Amino acid sequence: MDKNEQNKIVAGCLKGKRKAHAKLYDAFKDAMFGICLRYANSESEANDMLQEGFITVFAKLEQFEGNGALPAWIKKVIVHSALGHLRKNKKHTEHHVTLDAQSTDLPFSPESNQSTDDLLYLIQNLPEEYRTVFNLFSIEGYSHKEVAEMLEISVANSKVRLMRAKEVLKQQVTTQKMM
């Protein structure tokens, strides 16, 4: 979708046209669902994040000034909405994870054609606080300072959570290779 078409759809959305809302949603739902999957524990939770995110996108669409790229703006809104969903549904604080080869049931295999799906599976199974920092820093490209501000934690805590996420992922991959 080119910038002209995006601007027309945004204008239609701002005028309350349902077809424009549907076009905007259809154009970006798959990519944004992929983002939500990285933060969620399940597809069901990712769907909830996606729906909440698009409600926010439509509510705040007048804030999009058209100067930047619409996909980047939508992505930012979806990420912040996913973080809000996690905060709202937070059940506990910090996990300390230990894994052993007997209890780890992972689908990862270097010979597999589904390595992206396998990596997503591994990321989804990280404890929420590790997964969130890993996604924001390693995938979304935020700095530790930005991550700390978004999650209302210290920069040091952000760094520790990232380190632990990487350790758990490495342990999961190594364990699977041994099987």
Give a concise summary.
With 179 residues, this protein is mostly helical. Helices cover 70% and strands 0% of the residues.
Oligomer state of the chains in this structure:
single chain
Strand content: under 5%
Radius of gyration: 18 Å
The largest β sheet comes out as: none
Parts with pLDDT < 50 across at least 5 consecutive residues: 92-114
Estimate the mean pLDDT confidence: 84
Helix and strand string, N-terminal first? Answer: HHHHHHHH
Structural class: mainly alpha
Distance between the termini: 45 Å
Describe this structure in words.
The protein is mainly α. The chain has eight helices and no strands. The chain has helices spanning 3-14, 18-39, 43-60, 70-88, 115-124, 128-139, 144-151, 155-178. The model is unreliable at 92-114 (pLDDT under 50).
Helices and strands in order:
Blueprint: H1 3-14, H2 18-39, H3 43-60, H4 70-88, H5 115-124, H6 128-139, H7 144-151, H8 155-178
Helix pairs in contact: 1-2, 2-3, 2-4, 3-4, 6-8, 7-8
